[in-house]
Amino acid sequence: MGQIVFVPKEVDSNEPRVAASPDTVKRLVGLGLDVIVEAGAGLASRITDDEFARAGAAIGSAGDASKADVVLKVRRPGEAELKGYKSGAAVIAIMDPYGNEAAVAAMARAGVTAFAMELMPRITRAQAMDVLSSQANLAGYQAVIDGAAEYDRALPMMMTAAGTVPAAKVFVMGVGVAGLQAIATARRMGAIVTATDVRPAVKEQVASLGAKFLAVEDEEFKAAETAGGYAKEMSKEYQAKQAALTAEHIARQDIVITTALIPGRPAPKLVSAAMVQSMKPGSVLVDLAVERGGNVEGAVPGAVITLDNGVKIVGHLNVPGRVAASASLLYARNLFAFLETMVDKATKQLSINRDDELVKATMLTDGGKVVHPNFSGKEAATAASKPVVAGQNRGDDPAVKKAAKGTEPGLDVAPKKTAKKPARAKPVTPGQNRGDDPMEPAAKKSARKPAAKKPVVPGRNRGDA
């Protein structure tokens, strides 16, 4: 009998995703591992127990976690779950460690070796393990769908004999993976789209998707990006100028989608109550950062509210989970790609190389201790946070920018740009071309010949590849 991989049903009733798919179960079995899936684990993602069984998994119960060598989850295990795991078991999930030091310490006390998938370094070999991009890409898509559902008019322009229906105006704040996908989706639906971000590099990406870029383009703006492709925190003066420009623009919009996050800190307020009040009746704001305090003043986590002026604020939680069937398939592949690197092909046993860069970046606890430098002592208390874009800007994700200067599945230093000749803008498609991805460093530019326009798709081609 081989080592056991256990896939539980998520305890959180608001989490419909599952950490395995029939495809990844088949691949795990091919590696020589035995897979046990808790009964009903995949039902919310439209995966039946029979499908898992046909792929080679045994269908078990929550108690089977006690004999598992590896546990694959979506959410971090709670203390009650940890009591059922054996000491030394590897637990792989989205751990959300920032601000949850007590939960990380609990995993250490349980003796498990915990890996935070959102801390995956941004390097070529980690592209297939990038959970932040795979899930943020879907969040950006769903944000537009949710906004359109609450908006009581058509998005595209329609010209008929009875008259013309004007196109809806959509404004995306934060051009990360989710932001890029939101732009692309809204454009496909026929809306007029504008977007804003403090990083100058994303201006070309926005234009390549057919949207207009909005920002105060002064000297501070030109230097608003770190070497790793992340947004810097802007001065109060710049924030005031940007807020004034944004306020004027928001008043004319029909749908506003916000995606900005700052690791380890509450989400920045991008839309004030005054801005919300200035919007037209029937306008919709979709806050993708509501789980961390929200970008929109007045947003309520887990609710859609309608204000006195007729403006709606959408605050759905776990937006990727709203497209669970797709999200689970992608997430399962991310986890398999990572676990595969730790399985010895000869012995068919789990063999963790603690010197491997992927392991160093993602391992939170091991041997009864918190081992990640950002959470194991003084460094954890003083680690600096950097602005991010909801589930998009890798450095923005709470569990991201810290794994090794460039974190979250795939976050490294961006290639240096030459200064001889500017490269032409390359079309971007949310969630694909990593180099263009807001969560990824800018792609290298040739200094001799302008780069030919190449279509990009957000969250796929990691420009760092």
Automatic annotation (TrEMBL):
PROSITE patterns recorded: ALADH_PNT_2
EC number per UniProt: 7.1.1.1
Domain Alanine dehydrogenase/pyridine nucleotide transhydrogenase N-terminal: 6-139
Gene3D superfamilies recorded: NAD(P)-binding Rossmann-like Domain
Highest taxon of source: Bacteria
Catalyzed reactions per annotation: NAD(+) + NADPH + H(+)(in) = NADH + NADP(+) + H(+)(out)
Molecular function terms, GO-annotated: NADP binding; oxidoreductase activity; proton-translocating NAD(P)+ transhydrogenase activity
Keywords: NAD, NADP, Nucleotide-binding, Translocase
Gene Ontology biological-process annotations: NADPH regeneration
InterPro entries per record: Ala_DH/PNT_CS2 (IPR008143), AlaDH/PNT_N (IPR007886), AlaDH/PNT_NAD(H)-bd (IPR007698), NAD(P)-bd_dom_sf (IPR036291), NADP_transhyd_a (IPR026255)
Pfam families in the record: AlaDh_PNT_C, AlaDh_PNT_N
Domain Alanine dehydrogenase/pyridine nucleotide transhydrogenase NAD(H)-binding: 148-315
Top class in the EC scheme: translocase
GO cellular component: plasma membrane
Region (Disordered): 379-465
Function in brief: The transhydrogenation between NADH and NADP is coupled to respiration and ATP hydrolysis and functions as a proton pump across the membrane.
Family stated for the protein in its record: Belongs to the AlaDH/PNT family.
NCBIfam families xrefs: PRK09424.1
Protein name: NAD(P) transhydrogenase subunit alpha
Organism listed in the record: Mesorhizobium alhagi CCNWXJ12-2
